[in-house]
Amino acid sequence: MELLFISLGVIVSYLIGSMPTALWVGKAFYGLDIREHGSGNSGATNTFRVLGKKAGSAVLLIDIIKGLTAASLVRYLPFVDPGTIKFVNLQLLFGLSSVLGHIFPIYCNFKGGKGIATLVGMVLGIHYISAIACIALFVVVLFSTRYVSLSSILAALAFPLIAVLVYKNEEPMFIAFGIAAAIMVVLTHQKNIVRLVAGNENKAKLLKKHRQ
Known about the structure:
Elements: H1 2-17, H2 21-30, H3 44-51, H4 53-72, H5 85-103, H6 116-126, H7 128-145, H8 148-166, H9 172-188, H10 190-198
Helix pairs in contact: 1-4, 1-5, 2-4, 3-4, 4-5, 4-6, 5-6, 6-7, 7-8, 8-9
């Protein structure tokens, strides 16, 4: 029975992560398929770039909530107590399932976003202090450089260091997750890294009104 509940949690988390927020917002309010514009990525970054900050902010918030919701599903399992290693491990399992759902959504032929916002939501549900510190770093880098990709990469690389060195989190699976998450973010941003090195990466238009 325990295995059944865990399996259902993984499936539900994946389905939550698979919700194509950017695609739905684009089609419902702007009459366009976000995958056919900009970078072709159905995530918050491309939504900001193509549809502006209002749509981008909505997609970003909902994608964060997807990860947070998935990581919080563990609280409804009757056989695990909050604060235990098992509880954290199941949060990681469910949260990662939602991130994979965002990257490989079943509703969109397994082609989705890069999973950064959903990853942030997942970490908020597990270890919110680390998440807030990474968000702060992301915002500082973003407003300093206007590169969303660089901000995401540096925040992801800082995450395991913040968890271990600053907040002394000694949960081995959480530390391993932090390292794996950083690697995943770097791998999903390979094209962005190439453009950053070449000096032709797109910059975000911050605090400017979007024009159609």
